[in-house]
Write a structure and sequence with these properties.
526 residues, alpha+beta, Nucleotidyltransferase, domain 5, 5-stranded antiparallel sheet, 5-stranded mixed sheet, 13 helices, 36% helix
Length: 526
């Protein structure tokens, strides 16, 4: 082929695709023979595109094969075309992901050899786990102290060159190949004639290091420890499963990051950011409210001597009422006083103690979510490993989970299980309820819907009118309080360990009943 002129187009009829064996167990070449039996084209596995095309028609007749120079490329390149009526031979099903790891006699791909090769699929099942006898190396004391593979243990094993075709088939079937420090593993595989499309390779070490540490290098033992995964280090099969756990965490991290970016792309109405209130501001506002209440009381006292001052006293009472309500809300939001949600039966506040601040809670939930993703990946790998053991020629080391990191009866954070929002209701007393598919939230409290019941009832104790006696005792200041005319009801939501109530005036009773029906409906679905 070195004497062939590649400056013009070449076309051949009635050709045959044949395999050309190579010495030392290297991957065979594929060649095109013309009708006269001459080899007119030959390629190796490095040219993956044309090699994959010819491999489909190996040992078959093709009507026409042609190649010509590809002028649009800056490097010497040819373009090949093949015409055939025969169907290509059936290929084996593809594997979405494989993870591989090698144990060697040293660190030099040119001088050292492979002692053990393990390959698993994306579920943790072993596809290949074999030990091999080196062909040129007789001892490896330094490597033996690390991988615990002695010359005696591989004395009766075949060389890895006997498994070239089997390994190459797995590499070709895989859509994605993961390895921890992929350059090291693939360099040894390349030395024995194996070829792999680099576009399918994912170096877990570099992806994990860049995502969580800002560097390209990190040890597998450290990465697995951060994922709460315990394993037998420097065992190729265990290393593969540890790599799978680490790669799963990288994939989940990228999915969450992409979701946040996509969510940020959604345009929202421009609104002015709300300033956060401080405890100092709440105390100052409360003091000013008390001063205003004192002045209002003085004004009411003046009304007994000068009734015409009612014109000023009545609006002042309403202003005082609004100020008191706002001061109470500021104290609750800044933590100076507790919320006023009261239990329906106990009459005491049903509030979770030691509630963290929103930012701190969000950070804790995020860390907990990440830890649980790693634990779920670990459990999946263990289950697949138990269901699909490797070949009997090599023992499978046990896969362990860090049981100390699993809290008995622990549940994931609410934001992981709540589902989508179903309904929302705000009572006339300011109580805000939010119903999700599996949880219900009131303020900062959130509980599951298991055993939850919602009712709308009369508040008979709050239906009495203001009497003349109360007006006489309180003066005009009594007009600042809302009269109870019997037109309001109370929405009660009760669970195994909590109870919330909220007032619903006449115009909001229908909304309260609809919300209670949705709560009961979602609770029945649990």
């Amino acid at each position: 082929m070195q004497t062939t002129d590649t400056s013009s187009k070449h076309m051949f009829k009635n050709c045959t695709i044949i395999e050309v064996p190579q010495p030392n167990g290297r991957k065979t070449h594929l060649a095109v023979c013309s009708g006269r039996g001459d080899i007119v084209f030959e390629t190796n596995g490095r040219h993956s595109a044309i090699y994959a095309l010819l491999e489909q028609f190996a040992d078959q007749q093709v009507e026409e094969f042609s190649w010509r120079p590809y002028a649009e490329s800056s490097t010497p390149t040819i373009e090949c075309k093949l015409y055939a009526r025969h169907e290509p031979k059936a290929t084996e099903p593809v594997i979405n992901r494989i993870v591989l790891d090698v144990e060697t006699t040293g660190l030099d791909p040119e001088g050292d050899e492979i002692l053990r090769l393990s390959i698993i699929d994306g579920g943790g099942a072993a596809l290949l786990d074999e030990t091999y006898k080196p062909e040129h190396t007789t001892s490896w004391p330094d490597a033996q102290r690390i991988n615990r593979i002695s010359p005696t243990s591989v004395r009766n094993r075949p060389p890895i060159t006997d498994d070239i075709e089997r390994i190459q088939t797995l590499l070709d079937r895989a859509q994605e190949v993961c390895a921890f420090n992929a350059d090291f593993d693939l360099a040894f595989l390349g030395e024995i004639g194996l070829r792999l499309d680099t576009s399918k390779v994912r170096d877990t070490m570099r992806e994990y290091g860049r995502a969580f540490h800002g560097s390209d290098y990190i040890k597998l033992t450290q990465a697995a420890e951060e994922c709460n995964y315990r394993y037998n280090a420097h065992d190729s099969l265990s290393d593969c499963r540890a790599t799978l756990v680490v790669q799963t965490r990288v994939d989940n991290y990228r999915e969450r990051k992409a979701a946040k970016i996509n969510w940020g792309d959604v345009s929202e109405p421009t609104r002015r950011p709300k300033k956060r209130e401080t405890k100092t501001q709440a105390r100052i506002y409360t003091a000013l409210t008390w001063i205003l209440l004192f002045l209002c009381a003085v004004l009411i006292a003046v009304c007994f001597a000068a009734p015409y001052m009612l014109i000023v006293a009545i609006p002042t009472c309403f202003i005082c009422r609004a100020c008191v309500k706002h001061a109470r809300g500021m104290r609750e939001r800044t933590g100076l006083s507790k919320s006023s949600h009261k239990g329906k039966h106990s009459g005491q506040q049903q509030r979770t103690e030691n509630m963290p601040e929103p930012a701190a809670a969000a950070g804790a939930d995020e860390a907990e979510y990440e830890r649980r993703l790693a634990m779920e990946a670990t459990k999946t790998v263990r289950q697949q490993a138990e269901a699909n053991p490797p070949a009997a020629s090599a023992p499978v080391p046990a896969v362990h989970i860090d049981e100390a990191s699993v809290i008995p009866g622990d549940e994931p954070p609410m934001f992981m299980v709540r589902g989508s929002k179903v309904a929302k209701f705000k009572g006339d007393d300011g109580t805000d309820f939010t119903l999700y598919q599996r949880t219900i939230k009131c303020g900062r409290e959130e509980h599951r819907l298991d055993g939850v019941e919602a009712v709308v009832e009369e508040g008979s104790a709050l239906q009495s009118r203001f009497t003349a006696t109360r007006i006489f005792l309180l003066g005009v200041f009594a007009l600042a309080f809302k009269k109870r005319k019997g037109g309001e009801k109370w929405l009660g939501i009760m669970g195994p360990d909590f109870a919330w109530v909220s007032r619903a005036d006449r115009k909001h009773i229908g909304d309260a009943m609809k919300f209670a029906a949705k709560v009961n409906d979602q609770a029945r679905k649990q």
